[in-house]
Design a protein that fits this description.
Blueprint lengths: L2 H11 L2 E9 L1 H17 L4 H21 L3 E3 L7 E12 L2 E11 L3 H11 L4 H13 L12 H8 L2 E8 L4 E11 L3
Antiparallel strand pairs: 1-3, 2-3, 3-4, 4-6, 5-6
Helix pairs in contact: 2-3, 3-6, 5-6
């Protein structure tokens, strides 16, 4: 059996809707997101669930695009870049899960752990209050976004988990998974 057949069977066995491992940028993200929405719509997933999955997917993809340590210059001057990571969407136990993974600078581990350990412990009302409080704060200098992505993911998801595993003295692998109930 050839490699592609083995991979196809493995993906089908795991109920995976979408898998990407490779370079990403905002243009690629837009095309992928439209296709993921169309796929869920064709599967008769409710609009509310599609919007939650879409929101989580976008935040996780942006995280890869903004923070992956694996950078590919797509022009000779190094002005345009793509970042490499993984994005997965699957169905498991009545939920659609969205996961991402990418290599990060090890110096980000403590800051990420600090943010995520707070966010993953809050209930929906506490997340709403935390979101409002964070919007009032000044943006962190090293942040490439508004600093609200993980809160937004937790607000949309029914569960969220993460792991940051050290690879060597310079890098760690950051994995995050969020699940959205199919029932809405």
């Amino acid at each position: 059996m050839d490699l592609l057949s083995i991979m196809r069977e493995s993906l089908e066995c795991k109920n995976l809707i979408f898998v990407l491992r490779g370079p990403m940028n905002h243009d690629i993200l837009e095309v992928i997101a439209d296709n993921v929405k169309a796929k869920m719509d064709s599967e008769h997933v409710s609009y509310n669930v599609i919007m939650k999955v879409f929101s989580v997917f976008i935040e996780l993809a942006r995280n890869v695009i903004n923070y992956s340590s694996d950078v590919i210059d797509v022009d000779p001057l190094g002005i345009s870049q793509m970042r490499t990571g993984m994005l997965v969407i699957g169905i498991e136990d009545g939920q659609i899960y969205i996961a991402s993974g990418n290599r990060i600078d090890r110096s980000l581990k403590e800051r990420l752990t600090q943010k995520l350990s707070v966010v993953t412990k809050l209930d929906k009302e506490e997340l709403k209050a935390h979101y409002k409080a964070q919007r009032q704060k000044e943006r962190e200098r090293e942040s490439k976004g508004g600093g609200l992505g993980f809160i937004e993911i937790a607000r949309k998801a029914s569960s969220m988990e993460y792991e940051i595993r050290e690879m060597d003295e310079n890098y760690a692998f950051f994995y995050i998974k969020a699940a959205v109930d199919l029932a809405g």
